Amino acid sequence: MPGAAPTTSAPDAALQPQLDAFLARHEQRLVAFRRDLHAHPELGYAEYRTTGRIADALVAAGLKPQVLPGGTGLFCDIGPEDGYTVALRADIDALPLQDEKEGVAYRSTVPGVAHACGHDVHTAMVLGAGLFLAQQAEAGLLPGRVRLLFQPAEETPGGALDVIAAGGVVGVDRAFALHCDPRAEVGQLGLRTGAITAACDKVYVRVTGPGGHTARPHLTADLVYALAKIVTELPAALSRRVDPRSSLSLVWGRVSAGSVANAIPDDGIAEGTVRCLDDEAWHKAPEMVEALLQSVASAYDVEATLEYRRGVPPTVNEATSVQMFRDAAALVLGEDGAIPTPQSLGGEDFGWYLESVPGALARLGVSTPGSGADYDLHRGDFDVDEACIAVGVRVLTATALTALWDGNRPGGDPVEATPLA
Asked: What's the predicted TM-score (pTM) here?
């Protein structure tokens, strides 16, 4: 009954019919919600309409969302004001891509902007899980607190840091997130212990020196040659300074110097990315890149400056949290629902949360079983089988309840974590 003390019982087979009944009433509403977001995508830090739509849905359910100071993104607590707290995160921003899908009523209405990474799906799933858990809390059946994090600007990135700065993870004991995976089928949950996505930083190198005639390179600093040495030697030297298992790599995307064939230029640039799967190596990377750059530059008598822009840390899944995902998947998807998923060198700013609290990111299958569809993330034709939304609601709900139960067991040991490669 409403107002009753929370009952701490582990999620069991009774959860499935409760979710069935909830989704029978709400699944089509969640699909419609996702389609509305898909048709009206907003870029990072411009998600005002999206934030308003989420807030309205939560307020209608009797909840009290808190919009972030910047006006986009919000978080919302469900359950008691204190006690063990589990966070469920969704990212709400879109990408600066043209929606190239044909024949769908929910195609983007905003030129050059599209939900091509599934953030609209993530939002609908966390909202659905939150509405179900709010009903459980009202009935006195939620054994702790759940915090919904609807984060802006994941693609920028930086939105995770805004959530953290606004107190979004204060009091949070564990955090979970799902990400669409078009390479997996609906009903599959991809799990991995340890690093699942990589750090991604940007480096800007500027090299300067006295220019001159190509007939007399000995009277100048041969800047193009020096820049070429930096471009080739820096990645090689960097890979020898860290454990190779960290997968620390520097790859250049743009190199530019000079304008004519017979003149040695006085400046040049190189731009690239540093990616890494190891948190310790990521923290050391700027210092190492700077030291190696100066070593190479000094050998060729040029000046080199480095602008190192932090992106996101690696997303490193904690083993116990992965096991909670697996237990939840077994409950609501069946024993074969959880599958191994590979590491990616793509970036994901959920890693910022995992620098503060234990947790895990899982990949949710979104392709129609047996379809052979060749969708990929960050493509203009990206789409999902919308049956994945109900699957995501089930998984997030069961995971939150599993984590709350474990966190509230008197004197209990954490669940045994089995590594999943």
From this structure: 0.90
